[in-house]
Structure formats: structure tokens, C-alpha cells
Amino acid sequence: MTSPNPIPFFDLTRQYREVGDQIRAAVEPVLATQQFVLGETVSRFEKKIADFLKAPHAVGVASGTDALVLLLKAAGLSAGEAVLVPSFTFYASASSICLAGGRPLWAEVDDRLFLVTPETLERSLMSQAVRGKDGVFRTLNGNAPVRGVMVVHLYGQMADMSAISRWADDRGLWVVEDACQSIGALHDGKGAGTFSRGAAYSFFPTKNLGGAGDGGLISTQDPQMADRIRSLRVHGSRQRYVHDELGYNSRLDAIQAAILEAKLAFLPGWNSRRRFLAKRYSDAFSGLSLFRVPAVQKTGEAVFHQYTIVFSRTVTRDRVKERLMQEGIGTEIYYPVPQHRQTAFQSFFRTGLDVTDRLSASVLSLPVFPELTESEQDRIIHVLSEVAGKGG
Ligand SMILES: Cc1ncc(COP(=O)(O)O)c(C=O)c1O
Predict the structure, then answer these.
(1) Is the beta carbon of 64 within 6 A of some atom in ligand 1?
(2) Atom of ligand 1 nearest to the CA of 96
(3) What digits encode the pLDDT tens for the residues 272-328?
């Protein structure tokens, strides 16, 4: 039986009720000029979001996945080269490496943070690669040179980028960041893209800053990276009908840019509301032992794209999910199948990733969208506390 007042996991229509006027007003001038591809609207949004991200360069593209592919290409990834990437992430973090011609080298994550750390990266690299006399790490399986690391700021919390970039530097590896879930998050007061070759963002509708369809962006400190990505997004061309390399057709649409520009003004407020709701959950759950709440690093400011709790057993997680569903409360599992177990990646070496496997089997994300009301959240807290009181 479903509850009379369901609480959705996410409800974009509530956001549209808040910002609909601004969005309609932003779209109209694009329709009036009929300039839909790149042009002034996209440049203006790129400038505004670069300021927001405190990055000198921001380049809009067609999706977060494309942002990762173009970023990897511009970072220098060549065919057959390996990139360390966590398996505990969304599929596109790893598929983008393959789409850019490389191959994933699976990295373990920290059990509490869900993120890679210098320790998990070191263990993963050393168990799957050896350093040659030339200083280059090569995979034990296939002898592929390991060139870089993709750090994923999962659920809206940045990994310890200062420590990771030092770790990578010492090993001759470049770093790129998958910031698709972490727009506005900070580490040591700085955002993604500051500590690496660049960061990729997604504007998929349900992201903290979501468009009316697909969209993505790369931020970088490096003018040469930005120039290469600008060329790659228009068929490898800097001058009309002159093509320097094989590129893509991957532009951010002007309508998307106009909508995102209008929504950007709300993003800081939405992110702090997510932080408020997350803290409210964690405070309310502090005495419970049935599950643990997400760990927050003191050096950063998370934007809680997801609020994810961890159970010690899969059966308990699944039973609690079922119970919440009976109460009309939406939850999600991000992600039930880790990437190293996906058929799509079966040709790549499958290392043992105990933490990743355990997390995939025991995580549960609760509603944390900014428009969730406190009384709705109280109901979720109440049901979970009741279930926890009965031991699941
Ligand atoms: C961690 C992560 N990486 C990459 C992507 C890909 O972004 P998009 O869906 O915009 O291609 C997403 C979003 O779905 C994501 O959450």
C-alpha cells in the first residue's frame, strides 16, 4: 500500500515552479535571435560560470560524458594508454576513458568517504602496474603505459586534491577531475579544476545545476587546454572548414546556456539548502547504529548531490528500501553494479575491489533535493528511526 503523500526521491517540477519565470524570460531572446549554436549566449554563460568556478577558462559542451572525453584528449591521453579511475562511480567516468582511446585501471575508494585517496590510489597502482627504468608505470596485464588519474568527486564531495595531485606528480601522472556531481564544492577553499589539468561538469537535468536536457562543461587553468577543447568541440577546427585534427560535434546549445545562466543565480542557495538538509539528517541519525551517515571532510565544503547512508548488510539495506517505498518515500542506489563488473568493460583486467563491492551492496541515497520540505524530511527521519529501533 502506498502512502497518501508520497515523498519523491527528486522532483524537478518544484524547482520549475520557483524559477519558471526566469527560465522563460531567458529562453525568449535566444528564440528571437535564432542563434542556437554557440555564439554570444554561450560565451556569456561560459564567462559567468568561469567566475563562479574561479577558473580562468570554461568551455561548454554537449554533456558531462563529452566533457570527460574532450578533457582526457586534451590532457594528452593516447590510444592504448591506461588511466586510474575508481570503479565506484557512474559508468561514464570509465567509459569516457575508453571513448578517448584509453583503458581504465580500476582504483579502490576509501570506505568512509566513497572517494579515492593517495592510499587507495597507491595500493591500486602498485598491485596492477610496475615502474620501468624510464620512470613510466606499465600495467602488469597488457603492458600499457599508465598516464593519468581521473578523480571522481562522488555525491558532491571533493576528494583531497592537494594530496592526490602531489601523489600523482611524484609518479609522473597527470590528473583530471570528474566533477559532474560536485559543482560548487570546495577543497581547501578551491573548486575542482584548480588542482589538475581540468574538471568536467554535467548539466544533466537532475544535477545540482541542471539544464533542460543534456549539457556539460570543462573548467581549466590552462589556456592551451582550453584552446584544444574549444577546437575539439567543433570538429577539431579553429578556423572555419580547416580541420587540424579529428574532433567532435559537441557544443552546449544556446538555449541550454540561457537556462543554465538563469539557474546559476540560484545555485549557491540550492547548494546550501542541500548542506542544511544533509546536516539535519546526520544530526537526527547520530544515535542510530543500523547504518552510518556520510563522512564529511573538514578541509572541504560538500554540495550533497546525494546524501548516502551505508548499511552493514545488503538484506538490511534492501529491506529498509522496501519499507521506505511502502511509506511512499523514494530512494536510489548509486550504484548497484560497480564499473569493474560491467559487461561493457569485461575485456579490461578485473582487480579485486573489496570496498567497492561492499559499498555497491550496501549504499542507499535518501531524498536531499533543495525543495524537500522539512516536514517531509521529518517523516523520512521518523520512518528510518523507527526501522532502526526495531533493528531493521
Ligand atoms: C560522476 C558522473 N560522471 C559523469 C557523468 C556523465 O554526465 P552526463 O550524463 O551529462 O553525460 C555523470 C552524470 O550522469 C556523473 O554523475
Answers:
(1) yes
(2) 4
(3) 999 999 999 999 999 999 999 999 998 899 999 999 999 999 999 999 999 999 999
Res 3: pLDDT? 57
pLDDT band of 389, cuts 50, 70, 90: confident
Question: Which amino acid is residue 150, in one-letter code?
Answer: M
Q: Residue range 201-205: average pLDDT? A: 98
Residues of the chain with CATH 3.90.1150.10: 266-389
Fold annotation for 15-264: Aspartate Aminotransferase; domain 2 (3.40.640)
The average confidence (pLDDT) of the chain is 96
The reply to whether ligand 1 has any atom less than 6 angstroms from the CB of 180 is yes
Residue type, 209: L
For a pocket test of ligand 1, which of 204, 333, 334 has the largest count of ligand atoms closer than 8 A to its C-beta?
204
Which of ligand 1's atoms lies nearest the C-alpha of 215?
A: 10
* Separation between Cα atoms, residue 152 and residue 264, nearest integer Å: 22
How much of the chain exceeds pLDDT 70, in percent? 98
pTM of the model: 0.97
Q: How far is the CA of 17 from the centre of ligand 1 (A)?
A: 25
Measure 357 CA to ligand 1 centroid, in angstroms. Answer: 21
Please list, in sequence order, all residues whose beta carbon lies within 8 angstroms of the beta carbon of residue 74, skipping any fewer than 6 positions away: 197, 198, 218, 220, 225, 228, 229, 232
Range(s) for CATH 3.40.640.10 in the chain? Answer: 15-264
**CATH number at 266-389:** 3.90.1150.10
